[in-house]
Amino acid sequence: MVNEATGSQAPVKLGVENLSIHYGSEAALEGVSFDIREHEIFGIIGPANAGKTSFLKAINRMDMFNPDMKIGGNISFSGHDISKVRNVYGLRRRIGVVFPLPVGLPLSVYDNVALAPRLAGQKDKAELNMIVERCLTRAALWDEVKDRLDSLGSMLSGGQQQRLTIARALSQDPELLMLDEFSIAVDPVTTMRIEDVLKELKSEMTIILVTNLVQQARRLADRTAFFLEGKCLDVGITEDLFTGEVSDQRTRDYVEGRFG
Amino acid sequence: MFQATQINRKNLGRQKLFRILLGGMTALLILPVILILGTLIYKGAPVVSFDFLFSNPTNGMTEGGIFPALLGTILLVIVALLASVPLGVAAAIYLSEYAPDNWFTRTINLAIINLAGVPSIVHALFGLGAFVIFFRFGTSILAASLTLAIMTLPVVIVATRESLQAVPMAFREACWNMGATRWQTIRRIVLPNAVTGILTGVILEVSRTAGETAPIMFTGAVFFLPFLPQGVFDQTMALSLHLFVVSTQVPEMPEAVPYGVALVLITLVLMMNSVSIALRMYLRGKKKW
Fold first, then answer.
1. What is the model's pTM?
2. Residue to substitute from B177, B184, B193, interface A, most A β-carbons within 10 A
3. Of the four, A199, B1, B57, B225, which is 20 to 30 A from A113 by CA?
């Protein structure tokens, strides 16, 4: 089944070519090249300091807010070179991001989810109500918060805040959803619920799942890349990393937990 | 089993000693405040009345009230605020949210800190040179207030910058990641959560502005005016200067009058401070994360 999903030649959503990221003189990522196809869940695994988070930041052009961050090589989003995109805000609106630690903005639950549409100029009350309900429902949070949409999002529990963050990312109606170790501060039950949500979302968008839980990548990702010390050592169908051919022995060692 | 050893006893003894020592120091701190307030109330309260607050001084200021000075101080503070708050808040937002960390912004930060350390008499002379003479405002409320504004700018900037930076970075990053511009992020997330802190800083500035004497002496405040100021280009009386005058410059001044003036001034300042404290407590109660 996994093979079927990736064997299809779906159009390339995100093309990465010889990408390098430097902070000052220190390299965070070097020589990374692969394509991420539409409607796949693309896993990225690897230990700390492997450059996974920097990779996500580069896609979202966060270098704009960090003068130390230098991006080399080429990233294309739906065929457009993102370093040449004039309207980076428009680019970021098409990309939803979920962080390791939940960020409930100090606004009401409703305003948290309505923020992105409002930033994009949506003012129609009925339309906003619809977006908020739809996104909260899809993030498996609606039932828990529908009676207190006015309470502060930052006061929800950690697991709820993380689902709120996902609802917020979905409110952008993103073409690409990037999750950075989303389950780090979330209990196992919530993690499973979110994983189910991701499986459903796959039909509507492309998902990049950065995770340090190897088994999570195995459960969800169609293809997975293994990052180590700023290099991408392996990219392939996820199951192959566990049982098939690997191009670097260290990949197999890592997924089998032989080094950490 | 739990018998104290030699070392335990020594530590316990020291712990007691230091608790008493540190507590004593704190008590010493409160003493001057109590003495000042007590003296002022004891000696000044008898002269403070409705008439004292709301009538003009008469008979070489030995009789009558302090209304022109009270009104003058309030006017000076308001005009100073109108100048320093927009300027200071804007500068703080720029420094906190936009400015890159380079030699230029570091120089500005250094300048702000130094500005806070300039003695008020130097500010007074600067105000005299710049506003009274160069900009031809004359000795006026405008010149005096601008001098006060410049003197208190660092307070506004530092207070604003600190309350902006108390808003977690993660909130900004979440906003940027969803395609918000810097300004959208500031307006929707950063400022609403910093505004109470900024207000606290502004109120502290007010209380300082109200008490200053030197900066307004050369720039707009006068000993005595037979009429109330009609506009910002008029001179004015002010409580702080009035206190100086009635304490030192007028022979045969009834002893209670300076205490009364001081009491009014300090009450004004304390009222401002308590608004600031109340605001801070309210803020703490409504903490959003």
1. 0.83
2. B177
3. A199
A35 CB-near residues (< 8 Å, 6+ apart):
A12, A14, A15, A16
CB contact under 8 A, A119 and B180: yes
Contacts of A122 (CB under 8 A, 6+ apart): A114, A128, A131
Tell the burial category of A141 from Cβ atoms under 10 Å away from its Cβ (0-12, 13-18, 19+): buried
Instruction: Name the residue in chain B with its Cα closest to that of A108.
Output: B288
Angle at the Cα of A102 from the Cα atoms of A206 and A118, rounded to 5 degrees: 70
ipTM score here? 0.87
Q: Is B163's Cβ below 8 Å from some Cβ in A?
A: no
Q: Is B30 on the interface with A (CB under 8 A)?
A: no
**The pLDDT of residue A49:** 87
Q: Kindly determine whether residue A89 and residue B180, on different chains, have CB atoms separated by under 8 Å.
A: yes
- Dihedrals phi, psi of A79, to nearest 5 degrees: 90, -5
More confident residue, A76 or A2: A76
Helix residue spans in B94-132 (DSSP H): 103-117, 120-127
* Tens of pLDDT, residues A94-130: 999 998 888 889 999 999 999 999 998 889 999 999 9
Residue A154 touches partner B, C-beta closer than 8 Å: yes
User: What digits encode the pLDDT tens for the residues B15-57?
Assistant: 999 999 999 999 999 999 899 999 999 999 988 888 888 888 8
- What are the backbone angles phi and psi of residue B137, rounded to the nearest 5°? -80, -10
For residue A57, give both structure tokens. Answer: 């930041």
